[in-house]
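Students often ask why we bother encoding 3D structure as a string. The short answer is that it lets us treat folding as translation between two languages. Here is a chain of 511 residues written in the first language.
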Amino acid sequence: MKIFSAQQIYDADKFTIEKQQITSDALMERAATKLFEWIHARLRGTSVHIKLFCGIGNNGGDGMVLARLLHEHGYTIEVYVVNYSEKRSKDFLLNLERLKENKVWPDFINAESDFPEISPNDIVVDAIFGIGLNRAPSDWVGNLIQHINTSQAFVLAVDIPSGLPMDRSPWNPAHVIEASYVLSFQVPKLVFFLPETGVYINQWELLDIGLDAEFLEKIDAEYQLIGKQEILPMYRPRLKFSHKGTYGHSMIIGGSYGKIGAVQLASNACLSTGSGLVTAYVPKCGYHSLQTALPEVMVVTDEDEQHISQITLPFVPDVIGIGMGIGTEEKTAKAFGNLLKEMKAPMVIDADGLNILAKSPKMLNDIPENSILTPHPKELERLIGKWNDDFDKLEKAKAFSSDKKVVLVIKGAHTLVLYKGKGYVNTTGNPGMATAGSGDVLTGMITGLLAQGYPPLHAAIFGAYLHGFAGDICASQNGYEAVKASEIVNSIGRAYVEILSPPEVEEREKV
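And here it is in the second language, the structure alphabet:
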């Protein structure tokens, strides 16, 4: 699913209005009707007090239409106009008059007004600012937003939480609506998925307001939201007449004294994701533990007892995953540098492999083209430098990816894959995956997908999705706190089954 900029959404609105030969007011009515239907389906027959806070632009116009529809269906409402400017959109004014014709007279709030009382039992509809917000809210409006946030009421935001801009971090973090639920029109917004801005959104849902589908299909979006619908076309089914050699030979290189477990997790994940053969390359101290823990995985050892000091491969692997638990010893860094010069096929580089690259930037030029780098935020900072906010981070990360011709996998709540100036936002995963070894598992999974012939971009996107899905299965069984990396590996098979199950099978299993 594409993620559009504010301007692209405005263009889609305009195109839809012209093609369908409707007015902008009619499109607003359509959008607000969808809001009303969502609310009415959940509140019908209940006694609840709904307080609507409406701005004086089109987001406020949506709120005005919603207020009228709620009133017409017998809901108890109070409507407040947040009078932050002398300018009003024409559709806001039109729907303000329609609301008054229904004998509902909003209270106007300005800088001198006392804020209305809000009970924790109320439902607040936030329709103050929309996606066009391009400057900081006035202090008094920010104080009103804080007043709403501290009310403990259920807050339903229209399209986007007020005070949250579309293309930058908030001017004042305290002056953004903390939405219990966001009902967003037609398409998701990038700010829903970034660490600095996603914190204002608990849950969100899209409402289809009938924007022209052909136009949306043609727009080239910079970011894409990755769900099951996007993942399934990437899947490469196993062939009946195949053998282990068909699915590649992976080499997992890493480990040091006390950190052999990282290689064990990555190797197990690589095999469990489908790599035909897996060999682990570790210092001598890891030989017995790996042979005992993973009899399916072959083991080659370095001459050094505790660290990797030279990487002498007895065969040419199809793909290498490197870095987990490897350390940053000088001899290890030198061995890694030599390997980079020798390897031509894409690699998956993680953890200390990334830290070695950050310490020796010249080595970045030797990374095989289309390799996959999987940094967590601190490792990313070491690679690209500090950033001002999440948007600056993305621009720097995209520039790095394009310059070095690599796929960049930025791990986090919504893992982001960047490649050739495009971004792919993952939708699976949970806070329980913030645990030791989870990243090693992801590296092994992506390596296993590459070994099977997935293109690097698809391996990264599919790997992140499958990894998060396996983590979700763990969390559903054990709770967030008890998720362990080894159990994520054990859930990979179940994740495959559920991803590939037809919808009717999924529904039967839920019942």
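Translate back mentally: The first helix runs from residue 6 to 20. Keep this in mind for the problem set.
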